[in-house]
Amino acid sequence: MKTSTMTSTRVLTFSLIVSLLTFCHGDLQQEDEFLYDTFPEGFRWGFATAAYQIEGAWNIDGKGESIWDRFTHRLVSPIIDGSNGDIACDSYHKYPRDVELLKSMGVQFYRFSISWSRVLPRGTNDLVNEVGISYYNNLINLLISNNIIPMVTMYHWDLPQNLQSQFGGWPNETLIEHFENYARLLYERFGDRVKHWMTFNVRILGEATEPYKCAHTILKSHAKAYRLYEREFKEWQNGEVGIVIDSEFMQPDNPDDPTHVEAAERALRFKHGWFAFPVFFGDYPSVMRELVDARSEAEGRNASRLPTLDEEWQTMLRGSFDFLGVNHYTTELVRPAAAQGLPGWSGDQQVSKRKDPSWEGSASAWLKKVPWGFRKYLNWLKNTYDNPVMYITENGWSDDGRDPTNDTSRSLFYRDYINNVLKAVKLDGVNIKGYTAWSLMDNFEWANGFTDRFGVHWVDFTDPERQVIPKDSSVVLKKIFEDNGFVEE
Ligand SMILES: *[C@@H]1O[C@H](CO)[C@@H](O)[C@H](O)[C@H]1NC(C)=O
Ligand SMILES: *[C@@H]1O[C@H](CO)[C@@H](O)[C@H](O)[C@H]1NC(C)=O
Ligand SMILES: *[C@@H]1O[C@H](CO)[C@@H](O)[C@H](O)[C@H]1NC(C)=O
Prior knowledge:
- By secondary structure, this protein is an alpha/beta fold.
- It has a single domain, classed as TIM Barrel (Alpha-Beta Barrel).
- It is 41% helix and 14% strand.
- The chain has 17 helices and 13 strands.
- The strands form 3 sheets. An 8-stranded parallel barrel has the order 1-2-3-4-5-7-10-11, surrounded by 4 helices. A 3-stranded mixed sheet has the order 6-8-9.
- Strand 10 (390-394), helix 16 and strand 11 form a beta-alpha-beta unit.
- Helix 4 packs parallel to helix 6, helix 8 (174-190) runs parallel beside helix 9 (211-232) and helix 16 (408-426) packs parallel to helix 17 (472-483).
- The structure holds 2-acetamido-2-deoxy-beta-D-glucopyranose (NAG) (3 copies).
- Residues 167-168, 171-172, 174 line the site of one 2-acetamido-2-deoxy-beta-D-glucopyranose.
- The site of one 2-acetamido-2-deoxy-beta-D-glucopyranose (NAG) has 5 residues, from loops.
């Protein structure tokens, strides 16, 4: 079934049949007709940010150092423009501005993260920083008084430096206990008002050789935090706890070649399934178990690089979610390849990935615009995990920020990607409850510093006041939020 002949004159029912067929054959490589329709009543709209990317105040009011503070302060800066998050958007001091921006956009919720080392400077619960607690109380209260629901990420990459220095960070399972203590503190202090928790924002950065141990500790920590809430808080706080997993969609490079189809599925299981299979089903995907075990043995190791979850952990993990958080930006074209490179996650998959050169590029090398990939990805999630409750927890587009207002490419990105979410919901029955744009305003984009800008508000990082200017996309996005979808003009 080739879709290249599809024209915009086709009637909706026919394109529906075509799209159903193409989902079976997996070769939809271009956009369907734009869908004018609205999301179901009660669908929620919001923005996401992360503490290190916006807060600043890195060493103020008792905050402890995080690994990102330490990393960006290296003598030879690892950040592309030599910048850091010391001040960033200065949201620590200017959170009322953030709430004003959210209000002006007409959102129902705000997804932000808590800086672990701001509330527990050493990462351990022997020292609680009450000034840090107050900051989040003030933010949460201001959101609620403006009818904006707080959705809180507990961990968005800024591990307290002390946990790194003392225990070696995530490879050390000692961190499970410290994360559980941290989660307890958050439930105790904020759970009367925060009803939507995300334990981890999971995304594997770079091609580290041994990320499996870190993931193992993170999964166990997630399970502990989920079960703690279920056991001691859920009954009276009535909230929900989920996990956020970031993945590209993996499209078979040649959809007519079964080995490419298989390679794409394998890549999805290595990327998304790595975290989601334990959370949904209790264990790692079998394809990971087989490939990593075999390669570890070939390397002459006495144990697999992929650790094992025993019965007790499997039981604790299986079903440890109330919803799935979906971070999605782009798509890869995947084909099989020999195991390659250093022992590690990347080579273990036996795939190679590429981007189609015709895909529109953003300011970020990794981010190309592939709207149809989003719909296919959402259908893959639906089919793989039995249609769980999902929130889109991140989706967005970067530019270089040289023009503070004209961001046409971002407006078109949001329009086209959200239209594919709409198709997934209305035509495919994917169970999505809300959409979160990344991001409310330009912020510190990790290793890319301030060169890649994802905001719908432009931030002047040379101005001590951190003035913000609405970009054109803020108007486009606000209209989509207001209309709860797309109304034909
Ligand atoms: C983990 O932390 C404990 C407690 O400090 C320490 O004894 C152990 O050596 C650490 N393990 C690793 C692998 O670093
Ligand atoms: C396996 O090898 C590692 C070093 O690679 C060693 O630390 C460990 O003790 C060995 N385990 C067993 C069970 O032999
Ligand atoms: C905005 O920029 C695009 C090119 O990126 C250009 O085509 C368009 O005309 C510009 N719009 C305005 C209003 O300047």
